[in-house]
Amino acid sequence: MKGIILAGGSGTRLRPLTGAVSKQILPVYDKPMIYYPLSVLMLAGIRDILVISSKDHSDSFRTLLGDGSRLGLNICYAEQDAPRGIAEALVIGADFIDGDQVALVLGDNIFHGPRFSLLLDDALRRLDGAWLFGYRVRDPQRFGIGEIDAEGRLLSLQEKPAQPRSDIAVTGLYLYDADVVGIAKNLSPSARGELEITDVNLAYLRQGRAHLTELGRGFAWLDMGTHDSLLQAAQYVQLVQERQGVWIACVEEVALNRGFITPEQCRRLGEEMAGTAYGSYLADVADRHRPLLTARAV
């Protein structure tokens, strides 16, 4: 399976912070924002990853992540010259996907909760069509809302409904089979001139091949699109890490637990940040590592 991080857009709601830097480069407590969606793809066992950003910010991501080899990944890059909808990422990434299954994650989302890697593994094992992830919200009128049956099959999908049929919001993580590129290429732009991801999901719904896993009690899904939500996300990460001693979205730790790098490589990455709390954490992780810890939620 391939992975795509959509890190485009102009971040207008976060100005002046984003006047000269991409939103997905901004710090969320102790890490760049993009580490959080990157860790999701890595938790799913995905090693071939495409980062899509605006032309102005592409070099920043290359400097930060490189080719991914330090993490046992293969990271490549593409540019979106203007934001034209989430589904355009599937068209831009068509050659990269190359007939494979693909996971698409938005660059400003945090997912954190118990047994998350097991949920991802289960979805990937059963994937035949589209697999979405839902989260119960208090204000469903603000979100794309999914209605599911007892087996998780998607029954309906509404975009910001006045009278929602459920309170399950569709989050910014989407798994698709190899048909998705053809579906995305055949979409008609919306009234806003965008290729809507909801239209992709509706195409699978009409085929009876759309499922949704609800991220239940104890799980956190955070969208960092405003100043308030960015601050709240940072406070959440700080609190969890200080209370539990386990760091969220530490991509080096995920790489180690997934077997992408060795404990020795992890320790060397920590040594490159000697004198920092992050570097000390990586050294400790490398020393404590035991095989087959892939189910750990990080």
Automatic annotation (TrEMBL):
PANTHER family: GLUCOSE-1-PHOSPHATE THYMIDYLYLTRANSFERASE, GLUCOSE-1-PHOSPHATE THYMIDYLYLTRANSFERASE 1. Keywords: Magnesium, Metal-binding, Nucleotidyltransferase, Transferase. This is Glucose-1-phosphate thymidylyltransferase. Belongs to the glucose-1-phosphate thymidylyltransferase family. Its EC number is 2.7.7.24. It holds the Pfam family NTP_transferase. GO terms for molecular function: glucose-1-phosphate thymidylyltransferase activity; metal ion binding. GO terms for biological process: hexose metabolic process; polysaccharide biosynthetic process. Its cofactor is Mg(2+). It comes from Streptacidiphilus pinicola. It catalyses: dTTP + alpha-D-glucose 1-phosphate + H(+) = dTDP-alpha-D-glucose + diphosphate. Catalyzes the formation of dTDP-glucose, from dTTP and glucose 1-phosphate, as well as its pyrophosphorolysis. Residues 2-237 form the Nucleotidyl transferase domain.
